[in-house]
UniProtKB/TrEMBL annotation, chains A, B:
InterPro entries membership: IMPase (IPR033942), Inositol_monoP_metal-BS (IPR020583), Inositol_monophosphatase-like (IPR000760), Inositol_monophosphatase_CS (IPR020550)
EC number: 3.1.3.25
Identification of the protein by name: Inositol-1-monophosphatase
Pathway: Polyol metabolism; myo-inositol biosynthesis; myo-inositol from D-glucose 6-phosphate: step 2/2
Length: 338, 338
């Protein structure tokens, strides 16, 4: 398939934004069925022992809706959604053990990101819709309906909050990364689901990395990063959205799948952010800093940054990447079978 | 002063809600001055090197506004606001080294909670207005304007989101705490500002506690709590609000001052939550579980919980408190001079 024109892309973008709005409404409406709201008779049956079944049903309903809309409008496009790849076991039974994305125009969708938050009705959940062409995330739509926040971007059209506010929020000029980053930075990270308490497990490697980022400068044998704040939201997608917004300076995480990050990466890159690998290379001070491969499962994102008197924005981002790499451990998240 | 009637309290509540709405609007309007919004000429001067001065100015403006409104309407009431006690140094110079709250009707206000979030324009910031009588938090108003969320409660009038939705959200019936809590729970915690990397410092004690709560069941010498999710928002006030909502099951933190927690405790208690001390007593399995003293600086909050076939809601909350105490370390936050 040949390149898409900007006009074709714009049409797909408008479709994706409407899809995200409607899917987010579905998520919020389903959540509201669980609200008590003093209507005892209507809701008494709903919560019972376990909200998880309800949430699974909603997830599947929203996924079916999105998939049917895409198939109807763009029958030639490929779709990648988590239900087809639930868990590593199912995944490894599939034909492909490699990245899920190839050169075809591909929709990469998570109908519900932040599932734990959704189960507990913490507002940090969203639908995430990415559109990928030739391995590049071209369009991203993230709708967090309980927060009234819609993030969207299309290559060449900028990145937006609620379709009216350019991202990053602070611009004209966009501030450079702090001179002593990670000091002065808000660092976003996730504890994730892998909680094995084995020597040198991902949990231990993560916590050691968190400690290095948090501790006072001079602490931790010189690795102390004294970040301005440590944040954990429980949604990789919203971590990326808030990094695009400039609210988070750094996001570092391992274990995400394509659908967790495709839309967020599209939005962050269009806003001017950088996404590379979470795992420090052998020579963190000098290794080239490459854009992340979408299916790598290892992500380090830096917010959009402007130039200072002495550095370009990209230079200040790369300086920050190297300072993070100096403080974090390698995480062990390979592709199943890879 | 004698007890306030419900009618007097209702009037004060209406005043507090309006105060919270207006103060939140002031916070959001000041934040929006920092948005670029493509109006280059208007905003170019604003960000410069440092957003902190701007934020300090906003904090002071909102504080002055709130204080003037309270003085005008209720000249006999006492007010406790952070500016008068900034930092421990200033605090310890004051006459009182004891709790800031006595039996007088007292407004306990944080014009801007989540300062780091506000500086970075992460939406988790709010104004927090508590009204205390005889050491009990009677009224709480928390307004997070960038989230469009207003939490409010008055003793005897229930707890509310945006004045229309009863808290906790899931009710009729309110679910009990999970049978194997902290497993199944969302655990909210904060890294805070004390990042000293000394042996057994608060930072190390906190992280050891976080690890115990996060690790798989059976891990950490039997302390592994395998919580459903770990969350860090950077706002003690909103941690309490989301615990009242039922989104967070457990919040554990040390170091907060009265103004960080007064409104949140009022809302959480009115919603049916429990707040006791963060530090485990000598006999965590059997020690009595007392409501926290407002100025204790050590807080463990449990969401509202309903009865199950075998336990009252309070019993399931107390069971959860003991399970948390078994996994966390004592934190060292005393009153200055105490």
């Amino acid at each position: 398939m040949s390149e898409l024109s900007q006009e074709e892309l714009d049409e797909i973008y408008a479709f994706a934004v409407n899809l995200g709005k409607e899917a987010g409404r579905m998520l919020l409406n389903a959540a509201k069925l669980r609200f008590g709201n003093n209507k005892r008779e209507e809701n008494a049956h709903v919560e019972k022992d376990n909200a998880v079944d309800l949430v699974t049903q909603t997830d599947e309903d929203v996924e079916a809706y999105i998939k049917s809309q895409i198939t109807l409008k763009y029958p030639s496009h490929k779709s990648v959604l988590p239900v087809e790849f639930i868990g590593e076991e199912t995944y490894s039974k599939g034909a492909s053990r490699d990245y899920l994305i190839n050169d075809d125009p591909t929709w990469c969708v998570d109908p519900l990101d932040g599932t734990v938050n959704y189960i507990h009705l913490f507002p940090m959940f969203c639908v995430s819709i990415g559109f990928i062409v030739k391995n590049k995330a071209m369009i991203g739509v993230i709708h967090a309906p309980f927060l009234n926040q819609l993030f969207s971007a299309c290559s060449g059209r900028g990145a937006w909050l609620n379709e009216t506010q350019s991202l990053p929020l602070v611009r004209n000029p966009i501030p450079p990364m702090p001179a002593k980053a990670p000091s002065g930075c808000v660092f976003s990270c996730e504890w994730g689901k892998d909680r094995r308490d084995l020597p040198d497990s991902n949990l231990h490697r993560k916590v050691e990395s968190f400690m290095n980022m948090a501790a006072e400068v001079g602490g931790r044998d010189g690795r102390g990063g004294m970040v301005h704040g440590m944040r954990c939201l429980g949604s990789a997608t919203l971590d990326l959205a808030y990094t695009a917004m400039g609210s988070f300076d750094i996001w570092w995480e391992g274990g995400c799948w394509e659908w967790d990050v495709a839309a967020g990466i599209a939005i962050l890159q269009e806003a001017g952010g950088l996404v590379t690998t979470a795992n420090p290379p052998d020579d963190p001070a000098n290794a080239p800093i490459e854009n992340v491969r979408l299916g790598s499962r290892l992500y380090l994102a830096i917010r959009p940054a402007g130039a200072s008197a002495t550095e370009s924005g990209r230079q200040s981002q790369e300086r920050t990447v190297r300072e993070v790499w100096r403080r974090v451990r390698n995480l062990d998240y390979s592709r199943p079978g890879a």
